[in-house]
Specification:
alpha+beta, 207 residues, 7 helices
Length: 207
């Protein structure tokens, strides 16, 4: 698939802890929505990032870890690959993990910024895990991390126990409601993802 004149540079970022029995072949099948979209014939062929300073897609068999810091060129239809990707990784994951997908407007430049035009950037946060509870735990951990980091600008960390307890209550109530209805409901993005927010361009990951 040729994406040389694509509208976006798409960055996929995240670490996923895998089950100990997961090997390279199973992971290659799970990641097929990514490397096939990039026009590759295999994971090995498609694992390299568009940028040399990014590690791309890596599998650490000793740590049972999938590491992704991978950029490709693509269109908005790349979103269609994310649902299959999350479903596939749910089957292989050992615990809940988050995956960030950022769409950078490839046509946006300094001249556009100087003239006040907004980029078509977008951001999607996805969660994968072996069970709904594991996915919610990952969501809860990220929310606690974000809230505590924000509030520590004004309060000592030791004062925030009550805030964390209230967040836990919210997630406990949500999980109880989901398990009682025997369904996860309809996530806003594949794999229980959440769309990004505005406020300027997201910086690229630096390694």
């Amino acid at each position: 698939m040729n994406h040389e004149d694509a509208a976006f540079e798409i960055h996929v970022h995240g670490d996923v802890k895998l089950r100990e029995d997961v090997g390279f072949d199973a992971l290659q099948d799970a990641l097929k929505p990514l490397w096939k979209y990039a026009g590759a014939r295999s994971l090995a062929d498609g694992a390299a990032s568009l940028y040399e300073d990014e590690p791309g897609i890596r599998f650490d068999p000793r740590e049972h870890l999938l590491q992704m810091c991978w950029t490709l060129q693509g269109e908005d239809d790349f979103r269609h690959q994310l649902d299959d990707l999350c479903m596939n990784l749910n089957e292989l994951s050992a615990e809940g993990s988050q995956i960030e997908v950022t769409f950078y407007d490839a046509d946006y430049d300094e001249e556009d910024e100087d003239e006040g035009r907004e980029a078509r950037d977008d951001f999607v946060l996805l969660f994968v895990g072996p069970t709904p509870e594991a996915i919610m735990q990952a969501q809860r951990n990220l929310l606690v991390e974000d809230v505590v980091a924000l509030m520590e600008r004004h309060f000592d960390g030791a004062e925030l126990g009550g805030v964390v307890a209230e967040i836990d209550k919210l997630f406990t109530g949500r999980f109880d409601a989901l398990t009682s209805s025997l369904e996860l409901g309809k996530p806003r993005s594949p794999g229980g993802g959440t769309p990004g927010h505005g406020g300027g361009r997201r910086p690229r990951h630096l390694h």
